[in-house]
Structure formats: structure tokens, C-alpha cells
């Protein structure tokens, strides 16, 4: 099932806005009730103001009413950056799937990707 999310991420990545890096990233996150939210990276000339695909997908889900713990899995077309790893951990996503440097599709938990995270709120 997480490979399916990765494939959706690949498809949506073509909609990314990345005129500076030309690095198109897509993400597809699935909630525990089966809803899927897609996102892409969106760059900005003021480079730090860009938005990663993972965050884009999660923001859509939050806008729809989902909260940490409501997420089952996410597929991403790239290994998540450090900031996104914290987001994935904080939203308590079970499985994170992406293609690694060796070209293999791999799945990790957020705590495997970021073993020493900031504590969750609450």
C-alpha cells in the first residue's frame, strides 16, 4: 500500500513549482480513514520561503480537519529533509516511503529517520 502512495507522489510531482532547482518533489499522505492528500514542493526566489511537498500535503490534511495521529502513511519522491522529518514525527505518521540513493523503494518510521526529535506538544 505504501508503494501506491509513492506512485501517486511521482505522478503529482509533475505539478511542482521548482523554477530554481528544477527538482520536482511530490508527496501523498493517507489518513487512517483512507483519505489521501497530495502535495508538491513550491519554490520562491527568497529560497528559504519555499514549501516542501510533505508539508504541502500535510497542510491540506490539517485544513480538512485531520490532526497528529490521524495519518497512516506517506509516499514521497525524495528522502525527506530534516525539517520535514520533524513534521512526519510530530504528525505521528506510521510509514514513510521513498526511493533511496540506491534506487530502492524503502519504508521507515519517522523515529528511524529522526531518532532524536523534539518532544511532541501536549
Summary tags:
5 strands, alpha+beta, 5-stranded mixed beta sheet, 122 residues, Cytidine Deaminase, domain 2, 21% strand, globular
CATH architecture term: 3-Layer(aba) Sandwich
How would you classify the helix and strand content by structural class?
A: alpha+beta
Low-confidence stretches are: none
Mean pLDDT: 94
String of helices and strands: HEEHEHEEH
Q: In the CATH scheme, what's the topology name?
A: Cytidine Deaminase, domain 2
- Strand proportion: 15-25%
CATH class: Alpha Beta
- What's the CATH superfamily, by name? Cytidine Deaminase, domain 2
Rg (C-alpha, Å): 13 Å
Biggest pleated sheet:
5 strands, mixed
What is the percent of helical residues?
Answer: 25-40%
List the helices and strands and how they pair.
Blueprint: H1 2-12, E1 26-31, E2 36-40, H2 53-63, E3 71-76, H3 82-90, E4 95-99, E5 105-108, H4 110-113
Parallel strand pairs: 3-4
Antiparallel strand pairs: 1-2, 1-3, 4-5
Describe the structure.
By secondary structure, the chain is an alpha+beta fold. The chain has a single domain, classed as Cytidine Deaminase, domain 2, CATH 3.40.140.10. The chain is built from 4 helices and 5 strands. The protein has a 5-stranded mixed beta sheet with strand order 2-1-3-4-5. The model has no long low-confidence stretch (mean pLDDT 94).
Brief rundown of the structure:
Helix content is 29%, strand content 21%.
Amino acid at each position: 500500500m505504501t508503494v501506491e502512495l509513492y506512485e501517486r507522489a511521482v505522478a503529482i510531482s509533475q505539478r511542482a513549482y521548482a523554477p530554481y532547482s528544477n527538482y520536482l518533489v511530490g508527496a501523498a499522505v493517507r489518513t487512517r480513514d483512507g483519505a489521501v492528500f497530495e502535495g508538491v514542493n513550491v519554490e520562491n526566489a527568497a529560497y528559504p520561503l519555499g514549501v516542501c511537498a510533505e508539508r504541502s500535503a500535510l497542510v491540506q490534511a490539517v485544513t480538512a480537519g485531520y490532526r497528529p495521529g490521524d495519518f497512516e502513511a506517506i509516499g514521497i519522491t525524495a528522502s525527506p529533509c530534516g525539517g520535514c522529518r520533524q513534521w512526519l514525527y510530530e504528525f505521528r505518521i506510521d510509514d514513510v516511503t521513498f526511493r533511496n540513493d540506491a534506487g530502492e523503494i524503502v519504508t521507515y518510521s519517522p523515529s528511524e529517520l529522526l531518532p532524536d526529535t523534539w518532544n511532541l506538544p501536549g
